[in-house]
Amino acid sequence: QVQVVESGGGLVQAGGSLRLSCAVSGTIFRINAMGWYRQAPGKQRELVATLTSGGSTNYADSVKGRFTISRDNAKNTVYLQMNSLKPDDTAVYYCNAGVVGSTSLRLYDYWGRGTQVTVSS
Fold this sequence. Notes:
Number of strands: 11
Number of helices: 0
Strand content: over 45%
Helix content: under 10%
Low-confidence stretches: none
Distance between the termini: 41 Å
Radius of gyration: 14 Å
């Protein structure tokens, strides 16, 4: 069974930095694209950054130049380095991974349970 677990969230002052990690484990044949999404109170979940297995990245306009997504394929882990944090970045951050299971050989979209990021002013 595939599991997706985020870590690294916390409380930080404006202008500070955090690094989020997302580890995927289980009977995995292949992981395709991975990404980070976030949901602030009263708002819908939105895309933050995505990274394909080939290294192509995509960022939300609001985080370009401040956030960097990276991936360690050998460890089945994706990271989100967040610099110059703003209070508007406060949200629950969710990891998403497209995973092909070793048994079914079918692609499924998996989500972590989220990690809280709070940026104070």
